[in-house]
Amino acid sequence: MKLQAFQQFLTTVDQWHNHKPLESVISEKDEQIIQLKADIQVLEAKLKDLQQYETPEKIRIIEGKLATVVDLFRQIQDLTLPNERKLFRSQTQSPWYKLISKYFSHGENEIPINTTRNYFPAQKDVKLIKGSKVQESDKISRITSLKKIN
Length: 150
Prior knowledge:
Number of strands: 3
Number of domains: 2
Radius of gyration: 28 Å
Order of helices and strands: HHEHHEEHH
Largest sheet: 3 strands, mixed
Helix content: 40-55%
Number of helices: 6
Distance between the termini: 92 Å
């Protein structure tokens, strides 16, 4: 009885399928290969779709002006339509900082995602951590609505 209990335990941890006939193991592995090949085809199709959005070059921000670009994107977030609805909507700040990191470079350098994440906190009302606040000297442009000016 102890031997049978031990054998049952061994079948639950058997990675090499020693307790099954060879034909059964081969059949099971063939099914697994077919499933994995189907998964690969799906993933390759997704990759092909995603690659159409890739670009070989990035928009270059002049060295030292990353904060200026961040300020512009933060202003864009707050734009409203004449009916007072927000022009852009996003549940989180991640699309904004990922957009800058993915499609822009700072001088000749890549922009680390953590650098841009610091400029776009989850809660806009919270005081930003050191180094991620846009200084007044970097705020060189102001985006306004034409309807509000007139």
